Amino acid sequence: MQLIECPWCGPREEVEFHYGGQAHVPYPDAPAEVSDEEWAHYVFFRDNTKGRFAERWCHSAGCRRWFNAVRDTTTYRFERVQRLDDPEPHATEPARARRSTAS
Predict the structure, then answer these.
(1) Distance CA 75, CA 60 (A)
(2) How far is Cα 66 from Cα 7, in angstroms, rounded to an integer?
(3) pTM to 2 decimals?
(4) CA torsion angle for 22, 23, 24, 28 (degrees, to 10)?
(5) What homologous superfamily is domain 3-83 in, according to CATH?
């Protein structure tokens, strides 16, 4: 079983979490003016990245809070987790470089 680091609760077993899809997908500015086709793209079309990918997760069996994570989709390894109010991570940016700039 894999441990996932909740930004509030610390490491917990993966069965406590639910995947919430791709992170940082902006809501339409004028939703009343969006066509059905544009809504379909907003709701259903997401990147299918091989490698680092920014995602949303919910600690549903714990604090029930949502958070963002950068996960490598080829290894399933979580490289970074963060609260939703933290600055947006860049999924393609190497983890080592992120840590050094945050210091």
Answers:
(1) 23
(2) 9
(3) 0.76
(4) 50
(5) Folate-binding superfamily (3.30.2270.10)
